[in-house]
Amino acid sequence: xxxxxxxxxxxxxxxxxxxxxxxxxxxxxxxxxxxxxxxxxxxxxxxxxxxxxxxxxxxxxxxxxxxxxxxxxxxxxxxxxxxxxxxxxxxxxxxxxxxxxxxxxxxxxxxxxxxxxxxxxxxxxxxxxxxxxxxxxxxxxxxxxxxxxxxxxxxxxxxxxxxxxxxxxxxxxxxxxxxxxxxxxxxxxxxxxxxxxxxxxxxxxxxxxxxxx
Length: 213
Prior knowledge:
Blueprint: H1 8-12, H2 16-25, E1 30-31, E2 33-38, E3 44-49, E4 53-57, E5 60-65, H3 74-82, E6 84-89, H4 95-100, H5 111-115, E7 119-120, E8 129-130, E9 135-147, E10 152-164, H6 177-180, E11 184-186, E12 190-192
Antiparallel strand pairs: 1-11, 2-3, 2-6, 4-5, 5-10, 6-9, 7-8, 9-10, 11-12
């Protein structure tokens, strides 16, 4: 290892694009998901995000961070209008199409059409899922928390349904991302197949050593 110390002043003095790439890589591997929405007129939208997080199991909540309000934000505007949206795993087979959804298409043009990804629908649910994804989640909007520090929003949704390849669901509820073919992302634009599994471990207790399942 060759330790390199980088101070806050060093970061502030970095060239803009270098700094963006650098800071985006600090959190390590991130989930890669496609968020599916429609506007009040029924026009579909699809956007890749790398900020989806688990918030709680009861109720079943998931969160994501949106882009700053200084740029076009079709996704959050749509889900705020309709109150529903989907989160869909990016799988290896659709990485190029998923990345292309980050292009700034006009509001009236659907990313589904531009990328060739297929909108699919769950009966009674107004937002589209991605047919090519092996795991999709339908969510109902619960809260939008504005973050003044960088003018972004934290969107909190409650899970309404889940569709996934049944081969990936274990008897204990564990979801095998390798079986699903789920990809992940590092930095802004580097995609990876599901990382090799180190192993699963039993619930940690102070008086016991880590033990594999």
